[in-house]
Specification:
Strand order of the largest sheet: 3-2-1-5-6-4
Number of helices: 1
Distance between the termini: 33 Å
Helix content: 10-25%
Strand content: 35-45%
CATH class: Mainly Beta
Radius of gyration: 13 Å
CATH architecture: Beta Barrel
């Protein structure tokens, strides 16, 4: 329970910092795709996110690598912005390891 509380505290702190940065700042996240809605969004998790990951809108993103390889288990890097939408918006998605 303590670990969960600490993880939630870290996630809230990160969200607070991201929201208070300039909306033009591009952030990068590398991790594993845990859920994919082709052409709409992906959920990416790494050691800094909770196990559920971060859902990112990919509708307007440029893609490097095989777009069809973006599915659960694939390793990706995502460049994204937090622009006041429900989810961060991807600028670019690169497939690192399609697995």
């Amino acid at each position: 329970m303590l670990r969960l509380s600490l993880a939630l505290l870290v996630v809230l702190a990160v969200l607070f910092l991201v929201e208070h940065r300039s909306t033009s700042a591009v952030l990068v996240m590398t991790g594993d795709v845990v859920a994919s809605h082709p052409g709409r969004s992906i959920t990416v998790a790494n050691e800094q996110t909770d196990p559920g990951g971060v859902r990112i809108d990919v509708r307007a993103a440029d893609h490097e690598g095989d777009r069809d390889a973006i599915r659960s288990g694939a390793r990706v890097s995502v460049w994204y912005r937090s622009v006041g939408e429900l989810y961060p918006v991807a600028v670019k998605v690169r497939v690192l390891d399609p697995r």
